[in-house]
Design brief:
This protein is an alpha+beta fold and about 150 residues long.
């Protein structure tokens, strides 16, 4: 419970007796502000319950619930299918975040050649956001560390 209240946890899965505790780091593009937003989602899964605590707007848990209710085979797997469905949604939402910097890089290159004074700040902000996204996603899968 202490981890959930304080937030800022690294992605992880730990079992505490019959309860599986999962921390995920969802990511989304905030186009209006030209930045990547990293969130945090905690999932407690027990033999007959699932509790989620979001420190982010994403993922939309209601959408995940509707998707599961529409798939009886997935729903039949019980409570431990919920973290699977949530993780699947979080990973699906990574794709636009990964693709987004390509557009930003193209825009920055164009601005750099046009001698735009704000280019340095955008380059710095984009590199920080990408580094944060890499840290958030690499910690969950230790085999992807390089």
């Amino acid at each position: 419970m202490e981890d959930t209240v304080s937030a800022h946890q690294r992605p992880e899965m730990e079992r505490y007796g019959a309860v599986l505790f999962t921390v995920l780091r969802p990511a989304s593009n905030v186009a209006a502000e030209d930045r990547i937003e990293l969130g945090e989602l905690h999932v407690f899964t027990g033999p007959d319950f699932v509790v989620t605590v979001r420190h982010a707007e994403s993922p939309d848990i209601a959408t995940i619930r509707r998707r599961m209710e529409a798939d009886p085979d997935l729903l039949a797997l019980g409570p431990e299918a919920v973290p699977y469905a949530i993780l699947d949604q979080v990973v699906d939402e990574y794709e636009p975040v990964v693709d987004g910097p390509e557009v930003s890089i193209d825009e920055i290159e164009s601005a750099a050649f046009a001698e735009d004074s704000g280019v340095s700040r955008r380059i710095y902000a984009l590199s920080r956001e990408l580094a944060g996204f890499q840290r958030a996603t690499r910690r969950f899968w230790p085999c992807s560390r390089g």
